[in-house]
Amino acid sequence: MRSLNNRAESHLTGRAESELDAMADGGWVNHGYCGSPAPLVSTIYSPQPASLHRGCKLDRIQEEPGSSDQSPVKRNRGCCSFIKAFWGTAWTENTSNNREKFIRTTLRELLVYLVFLLDVCLLTYGMTSSSSYYFTKAMTDLFVGSASQNGVTFQTIGTMADFWDYAQGPLLEGLYWTKWYNNQSLDSGNQSFIYYENMLLGVPRMRQIKIKNNSCKVHEDFKDEISGCFDVYNEKKEDDLSFGLINGSAWCYHTEKDIKGSSYWGLLTTYSGAGFYQDLSRTKEDSANILAELMENLWLDRGTRVVFIDFSAYNANINMFCVVRLVVEFPATGGAVPSYQIRTVKLIRYITHWDYFVLGCELVFCVFILYYVVEEILELRIHKFAYFKSIWNIMDILVILLAIVAIVFNVFRTIKVDNLLGSLLEQPDLYADFEFLAFWQTQYNNMNAVNLFFAWIKIFKYISFNKTMTQLSTTLGRCAKDILGFAIMFFIVFFAYAQLGYLLFGTEVESFSTFVKCIFTQFRIILGDFDYDAIDRANRVLGPIYFVTYVFFVFFVLLNMFLAIINDTYSEVKEELSSQKDELQITDLIKQSYMKTFMKLKLKKEKISDVQEALQSGSGEIEFKDFRETLKEMGHEDKEISAAFSQFDRDGNQVLDVDEQTRMKIELEEKRDALNAELNNLGRNYGKEFPENRSASDDEKSRGFVAQDQFLSLSRRVLQMETSVAALTSRMDLIMEKLGLMGNNVSIQIEPD
Predict the structure, then answer these.
(1) What is the reported pLDDT for 252?
(2) Which of 12, 557, 572, 621 has its CA 20 to 30 A from that of 2?
(3) What contacts 736, CB < 8 A, 6 or more positions away?
(4) 180 lies in a domain?
(5) Where does this protein hold Ca(2+) (predicted)?
(6) 596 contacts 708 by C-beta, under 8 angstroms
(7) Overall pTM surpassing 0.85 (yes/no)
């Protein structure tokens, strides 16, 4: 029979440490929870005590006879256990009655999600660069800010004459760079390098859309004086008849499908991708001749409603494409409305080492999306339609859907760019239409930005177990109905003023020229950004009345009512949270782990002291028998004593000579010093956070906190009782074995009779 001793069980066996862990858990944790197994901490001896797995071995022996019949069940259980452990969340596990399990599960989810969020951030920011801004700024300054000899810039174009002045001046000068600043040739052939760095891809294209004559009606009184009428732009009224020279693409209509165009949302309206187009040349001289011919033959006339100038450039230094579109709209009122769109995008993805690192992040991102898809399916399967009652679950689905769309587009974009670049290199004299790819790349970036925003907001889902973190969500959820009712009153007044402003100032003030602009202008007035002088000039009587009454009712009355609703609800929520009973928090788990670590280090230190005493008890060489007897008197087990002795008995003669004892003492002393240093460090912090002489407060007592001395004393007493019970159990096992042998002998003696 194995003899068990108090000190043996409390100092050398892993079982004692496990029991101590369980008791330490009970000091701070919900006492009704015993679902998590106690951690096993190895001793200074490598082998694990056999008693740790004794129960497991017995279970396995009992199950072996029927293992063949139950193997499918075991496999199913193992699969379910794996899924539960790998995809376990607060929604897939029952944590309603177990606060500790809820916090641990939520913390695990939070850690996994933080890794996912880090990957998304690296992936998103890896696709952008600060150089994009400077590339865009350089192209904007060149094609928008440069002036012609007559002082016409793109932004100051007001007539068709100004357009031709700009096209034959700053546009041509900016597109074709073939010489250095000292007139020395760039030696690049017919290829243009804008700013000496940005290669012009293909040739630029000019396209216009016209409206049919007599597309509107002229009043009877003016029919004799006005011979033609060209309506505002409408796709159904586009002019599709050839005109002018009728000998090229500039004079013949082409549908959107023919030129593979796309619609464009301008400042005045949305235009189709059809029209009359003219591709320029690769040289400045030929392009100048083409523009002169178009101007002389009146390519632009009364029916012209918009002109597009499209071209693309590529900078190999930063691996960026710049897709430029200059737009001049000619409204039916006369004049011109210029606008531009410059998209700097990264279409070729994988060149540098950083790009391949981003590729690795993309693969990790795909794995995470697959992981979260399975997780949401499991939660949906468990909770059915109740799953959609949580706003966080809806946000999870939104993030996953946006991510899947991003993955699909990423593959599509890579294939499309390769095909387009291949055709461009084969035919460099053609127009390189990167507008389609640049548009969808921009939408892709916008989608990633929105997805990253929701990903950051989703962190609130995992930190909601803290009372402080729940104040925001609880406040907004509780006052939602009041805010909704107030919003109805607010927007009635707000839209009434928006209609009033549009009708009063819409013809003279740009910020009130449309109803949508009126809405945003009134939001800006609330924030203090307004142009009172423009309102006053538009209407000297009703302008001041509109402004004063709007500021009074909306800013001073309605806005403060809105803030009062939120403030009152927040005060109620804060008062309720302060009166609630404190539950287990993260800090409690940290204190628990801290305490267990501190006590385990002290136990290890005492183990080393026992071995050192055994070494000091001998003189000269120490035999294994004496070493074993000394440690057995201290309560250690034979197996652990043999492991410790054989670790330093190099020659295997069952005797520790002077050299072996010296090595053993040195190693033990080093371990003891390291443990002392760690204990001192922990003890210093422990003394600050958990003073030994401090009496437990009423709140701590109600939550199960005890002083350190009391806890250690109770721990030793419980362990003594446990070891006594273990000794009695082992004796009973021995008696049962003897009784079993006696019964077998009796049956053997009876059988011959």
Answers:
(1) 93
(2) 621
(3) none
(4) yes
(5) 649, 651, 660
(6) no
(7) no
Q: Which residues contact 513 (CB under 8 A, 6 or more apart)?
A: 506, 507
Residue type, 483: I
Number of H helices, E strands in the chain: 25, 10
Q: Per the structure block, which two tokens stand in for 183?
A: 């007139």
- Domain end, chosen from 522, 555, 583, is at 583
Question: Residue 66: what pLDDT?
Answer: 41
CB 376 within 8 A of CB 396: yes
Nearest alpha carbon to residue 435 among 277, 567, 289, 548: 277
| Cβ neighbours of 253 (radius 10 Å) | 18
Residues 610-618 have a mean pLDDT of 57
Among 161, 170, 158, smallest CA distance to 324 is for 170
What does the alpha-carbon distance between residue 154 and residue 134 come to, in Å, rounded to a whole number?
20
CB atoms within 10 A of CB 44: 17
> Domain range spanning residue 663?
586-686
Yes or no: say if 98 and 32 are a contact pair by the CB < 8 Å rule.
yes
Phi-psi region of 412 (alpha: psi -120 to 50; beta: other; left: phi over 0): alpha
The verdict on whether residue 660 carries a ligand-binding annotation is yes
Return the closest-CA partner of residue 518 out of 498, 538, 533.
498
- Which helix (DSSP H) or strand (DSSP E) does residue 313 occupy? strand 304-315
Choose the most confident range, by mean pLDDT, from 32-46, 139-153, 642-656: 139-153
For 177-223, the pLDDT digits (tens) are 888 888 888 877 778 889 999 999 889 999 999 999 888 888 888 88
Q: Is 651 known to sit in a ligand binding site?
A: yes
> Is 418 assigned to a binding site?
no
Cα Rg of the chain (Å, integer): 41
